[in-house]
Write a structure and sequence with these properties.
The protein is an alpha/beta fold and about 290 residues long. The chain is built from 13 helices and nine strands.
């Protein structure tokens, strides 16, 4: 089976590519920057890197000719959101396509407080309207999201945020990719949505307790109000749109939208999801300073 991966050099997309290649599958990475892809993957057998203008419907249609399945791992808003719509529409009109699987997000719904969740729900609605054979992988917040606060933690042993309460079951992005590979390779799993979480729901302060144990010194959660949080993000160079997404993510956590776990990863793979402690141990140096 030949699978095209859009967003192949991203955190999850790159692991999807590696996972498929490790299983002897043929992969076509549709990328804007072939050199970046080659630096990421080298030139392994089974991988074709194809330079593609992802916002060009005609070019995408040509790239999807002969492809059986597509995995899309991109953002949900702005340019990347538009590219997702273009890619889904192109796949819907490609005769060879039997399945589109897309990286979404937990609680993708019109009623979520999260901007990302609402945007993903809108993309799902569009996919439904095209009639394309369609699945999604819907993970909780990635464990890797804690790396965004690593610099502050190194300097001050604090992490500033809004959500000092409310829990989320952080999931390792490698587990997300593994679930995606399982779905791609098993037609019996197609045309469904998979909600993925880590093994334990916890608050940001509780996650920092685990990091404190790993480092052997206390890292505390510093509660900010909305204005302070936004100013801090903008001052750190975070683009305004991304800052808005992060604020809405915190509001969703405070509202309890993410306070649950699922067994979906274990059902798909037969193994338990990685605990947060494992991720923190592997990335200890980035927090320790």
């Amino acid at each position: 089976m030949t699978t095209a991966v859009i967003g192949a050099t991203g955190r999850v997309g790159s692991e999807i590519v590696r996972g498929l290649l490790a299983r002897g599958e043929t992969v076509t990475a549709l990328v804007r920057d072939p050199d970046k892809a080659r630096r990421a993957f080298g030139e392994p057998e089974g991988l074709r890197v194809r330079s593609t203008r992802l916002d060009d419907p005609r070019e995408l249609a040509e790239a999807l000719d002969g492809i059986r399945a597509v995995f899309i791992a991109m953002g949900s808003i702005g340019t990347e959101g538009v590219i997702q719509l273009v890619a889904i529409n192109a796949a819907a009109h490609a005769p060879s396509i039997e399945q589109v699987t897309r990286l979404s997000v937990l609680n993708a719904s019109a009623g979520s407080l999260g901007i990302n969740q609402r945007a993903h729900h809108s993309i799902d609605d569009f996919a439904s309207s095209t009639g394309v054979p369609y699945s999604t992988i819907r993970p909780a917040i990635f464990s890797a999201s804690m790396l965004a606060g690593a610099r502050e933690m190194r300097i001050s042993r604090t992490w500033t945020g809004l959500a000092d309460r409310g829990r989320t079951a952080l999931i390792d992005h490698r587990d997300v990719a593994e679930a995606g590979v399982r779905v791609l390779l098993d037609p019996a799993l197609w045309n469904a949505h998979y909600d993925l979480t880590g093994p334990v729901a916890m608050s940001w302060p509780e996650a920092l307790e685990l990091l404190s144990a790993e480092l052997g010194e206390q890292v505390r959660f510093k509660v900010a109000n909305d204005r302070q949080f936004l100013d801090g993000l903008i001052g750190a160079g975070v683009p305004a749109g991304t800052a808005e997404l992060l604020m809405a993510r915190e509001w969703a956590i405070l509202a309890g939208e993410n306070d649950y776990t699922t067994e979906t990863f274990q059902q798909l793979t037969g193994t338990p999801a990685r605990p947060l402690q494992e991720f923190l141990h592997e990335h200890r140096a980035q927090f320790a300073g």
